[in-house]
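1st attempt posting a full record on here, be nice pls
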Amino acid sequence: MKVPHLIAMAAALALPAAAFAAKYGVEALFVKSGCSYCHKPERKSLGPALKDIAARYAGDKTAPARLLKKVRNGGGGVWGSMPMPGTPASVSDKDIRAILAWVLARK
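the predicted structure (as tokens):
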């Protein structure tokens, strides 16, 4: 195969690979941060399903800032009687923001 063909093929694969890495990078962060213990993508577990969180806050421009505080400090009463514990200090606010953007973008 000629070099120009290889370059074109690599460029064509770069965009899907970047999207894949971005998606699974945040998903891996979600798991590593412990969020997946209580939250599942499509069904309620100990906490609400990710799709339900996204639906509840769809179109709410204040949601990311409000949810950052809730994820960081914990809270309860919105989704039932099970309180959500605060997030450990080892998880940065930047990581929480990335996870929240990923969750809120779900359909």
